Amino acid sequence: MSRIHNFSAGPSALPTSVLERARDELLDWGGTGMSVMEMSHRSKAYVGIAEQAEANLRELLAIPANYKVLFLQGGATGQFAAIPMNLLRSKTTVCYVNTGIWSKKAIGEAKRYATVKVAASAEAESFSTIPARGEWAVDPDAAYLHYTSNETIGGVEFQEIPDAGGLPLVADMSSNILSRSLDVSRFGLIYAGAQKNMGPAGITVVIVRDDLLGQTLPGTPSIFDYQQQAENGSMLNTPPTYSWYLLGLVLEWLKDQGGLAAIEAVNIRKSGKLYAAIDQSPFYSNPVDPAHRSRMNVPFRIANDDLEKTFLAEAKNAGLVNLEGHRSVGGFRASIYNAMPEAGVDALIAFMAEFERKHG
Ligand SMILES: *Cc1c(COP(=O)(O)O)cnc(C)c1O
C-alpha cells in the first residue's frame, strides 16, 4: 500500500495514523463486538465517544465554560442560514465582511432572513487582500459581525481576530480551525465544517456563547435551533455518529502533536517555505497580498497557462494529487491543512523546481 500526497481542499487528507486506528477499531470498538457505525447513539459506549470528542475540543481550544459546543449536520452552508435564524434576535440588520467566495455565499443566504450590511469588501481588488479594519463600516445596531477567517478558494486568511466594534463576532473557520492558537472568548460564535481540517464530511462544529441562545426566529427548524440542540447534547435526532467518532480521533491526534501552538509552528514552516519557493521563482506566482496569505490554501499560477495540464499530469506521476485550482478561479491550489505532512510540502516544492527547470 502506498499513500500519495493529497492536496485536496476538502474533503481532504486525514492523518494516516487516524485512518489506521479507525481500521483497527472498525469491526470491534473497545471490546463491544461491534463497529461504531452499528452503535445506538444513545448507548453508553457511543455517548462516551461523543463526550470525549467534545472534551478534547474544549481542551485544545481552551473553550470557556459559558460556550456551548454543538455537533450538527448541514455543513457550513447550513450554518449560513442557521446563524441569522438564531442570532438575529429582535434585530433586523446583520453585518458581513466580504473577502471572497465563501463570504459571498454566507451573505447571500443571510439575505433571506435579514438586511445585510457589507461592512467592507475586497471584491474590487479581486479578493487578493483584506480591507484594513479602520476602513470598515460596522453598524452598531446590527445583530452580529460575520467574517470568513480563511477564504479556502482565494487563499486569503485573517492573521488576527478583527475588532468587532461591540457586536457579537461570528466566524466561518471551516478551513483554518485548529490550525493556530485561538482566543475563543473574543467570539460570539465560531463554526466550521469538519471536512477541511478536522475530520470527514458530514459534521459541523458550532461553538456559541450561551447568552446568545434562546431567541430563535419563529419557524426555525428544530434541528437548526441551537438552544434545542444544546439541551439535547446535539442529539435532537440521530447525529452523524461515525463522522463524530472520526473527528474525535483527529482531535486525539492533534493533542499527540502537541496541540495548537505546536501545529501552528509546523503550519508557519510549511506555508512559509511554499510561498518562498513561489516568490523566488519568475515562473510561479501567487496573487495574494503577502500580509494576508493563507497558511492553509496556497493558490498559484505558472507563467505559461498552456502548461497547466502537463503540470498536473507530471505532478500526479510524482505522487502529488488534487492540485488544480477551484473551478471558478483556475490555476493551481495546494491545500496544506494540519494533516499534510511537511514531507508532502517538501515533495511539492522539489517537484515545482524540477518542472520549472524542464519547462520554464
Ligand atoms: C468548504 C467551505 C464551506 C462550505 O462547507 P459545506 O460543509 O460544504 O457547506 C463554507 N465556508 C468555507 C470557508 C469553506 O471552506
CATH superfamily of the largest domain: Type I PLP-dependent aspartate aminotransferase-like (Major domain)
Number of helices: 9
The overall number of domains is: 2
- Approximate strand percentage: 15-25%
Bound molecules: pyridoxal-5'-phosphate
Query: Measured on Cα atoms, how large is the radius of gyration?
Result: 21 Å
Kindly report the spatial arrangement of strands forming the biggest sheet.
2-10-9-8-5-3-4
Number of strands: 14
* CATH fold node name of the largest domain: Aspartate Aminotransferase, domain 2
Q: Indicate the low-confidence ranges by residue numbers.
A: none
Shape: globular
Question: CATH architecture of the largest domain, please?
Answer: 3-Layer(aba) Sandwich
Q: How many angstroms separate the termini?
A: 34 Å
